[in-house]
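User: tokens in, sequence out, please.
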């Protein structure tokens, strides 16, 4: 009786490892940007849970930037111009929208857009 071998060949195994390695490398590049965005979301939630009565938009921005430093969000990630405070569907809201350019391979980059809005409690003072 002749036995028949089953399984993949060495060449097929190398292709599977190459494809898995490509996706693992892609994940290693993208995951830090998403964990950083989770820090931005946490800082925004902390600011929105407090009452902002009498605070100016600049004070709210400064408070948010300080809280993002506690969450290990890079100084070059979110700029003051990326933070806006205005009217939303549920009243005043704090909105952060920014793009992150992540180098990948040679001249290929990932451009990832992050955006989040949370309602703010209280009355905001008029800007100076």
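Assistant: Sequence out:
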């Amino acid at each position: 009786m002749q036995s028949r071998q089953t399984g993949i060949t060495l060449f097929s195994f190398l292709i599977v490892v190459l494809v898995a390695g490509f996706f693992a490398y892609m994940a290693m590049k993208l995951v830090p940007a998403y964990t950083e965005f989770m820090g931005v979301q946490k800082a925004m939630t902390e600011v929105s849970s407090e009452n902002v009565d009498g605070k100016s938009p600049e004070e709210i921005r400064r408070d948010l930037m300080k809280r993002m430093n506690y969450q290990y969000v890079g100084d070059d990630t979110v700029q003051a111009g990326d933070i806006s405070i205005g009217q939303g569907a549920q009243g005043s809201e704090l909105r952060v929208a920014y793009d992150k350019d992540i180098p990948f391979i040679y001249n290929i980059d990932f451009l990832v857009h992050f955006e989040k809005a949370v309602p703010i409690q209280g009355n905001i003072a008029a800007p100076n």
